[in-house]
Specification:
433 residues, mainly alpha, Growth Hormone, Chain: A, 20 helices
Amino acid sequence: MCGTLPKRWVLTIMAMFGAMSLAFLRFNLSSAIVEMVDVGSQDFNDSAMGNSSDLQSEFTWDANQQGVALGSYFYGYSISQVFAAWCGRHFGRARVIGICSIVASILTIMIPVLLRIHFGVFIAARICIGALWGSFFTLMHGLFGVWSPVDERGKHLSIQMTGSVGLVWSAIWLLIIHESPNEHPRIHPDEKQLINTSIGEEVETDRTHNVEWVEILKSPRVWSIIVASFLEHMPTYLALLLPTYIENVFHLGVKESSFLSCIPLITRAVAYFTLGWIVDAIIAKGYRASTVRKAVYFTGNLLAAMALVALTRATTSVAATMLLFSLQEAASTVTATGIKASVIDMAPGFSGVIFAIMNSSGSLMGFITPQYAGILREANSAEPNKAWEVLFLTSAASYIVASIIFVVFGPSRVEPWAKKENAETDETEPLKP
């Protein structure tokens, strides 16, 4: 279409590296905690921890404290979503993302010092980091709402989800990313026309419109994705516990557990990239977007649930465990091309706000899941495998219920309240590629 990389793909590539930075901040503690404390022990005392000068014995956190430490990031992440959407609409989404990432990166660099000051100070810092990075996916959804043609949304969202880094990324982001095609000084006219023709130029000016709060909050379709997102996030956050699970069940150290924990995440990244292109190709052939998204979402979540059920019987084989975890992670990538893409489909101009509400509900599982796991581990200290079995079965059930809710009640058309008053399209217009 033009001699240089289209600007909407520049946005997507930057979003991918931003998501990578966010993943580092979200999951780095999951591996580190294996060495920081004895995650396999349920009784944390001085004699059990050994020499206090050793890194492994430096922090005497019980199972509940470990759950709080792993989940603290998501306290801030879940409460900041709607406020981030408001800030993005008033001050510019690209600008807010860049500033928040700079502050979050500085706090992350300070974590080793804060850890040794007090457990509460460390928790407060993790909450702040989560709150600052809570803006990212919410505001990215808003940007994709004005940058991504309908039949490319699966690709853009999927690539975004695949992946000192935060500071470098923040500077580049603020230099090259712009709010919309019409505000970009170097975009090729052909690309601008392609985007505006696909999604409508009116979406670009959504920051000047009042949010239709009443219509959004009384919409059954909005609530269907809020509830489904909440439920599907329980198994999503099992990745936080994977290093602990490997150490607890197979008694492997931090090097082995960290390496093995990367395998499902790499599989997830590959699946994100592949599935997005496949779904967009199907939609581009003329199939109704909502039907494709619901079918893929249900199928993927069903496979992920089956993998979790099988995990309850794979406690003697590391290879089988990693295979099943990888299948669960790969299958769960349907969220990007399913429920997350449907948010943009149903209300492009308000996708950031709706995603903020949806992601806030889902992020609650970020601290519920680790703490629930901690409670189960303490309650089943005599049979540690029993705790993991209950956790996996509960997570599998969450997948199934979320899928049913989204398929039955999820969006199937552009919502009438999501259109401008002077829109010429019919209110019953279905989602189209």
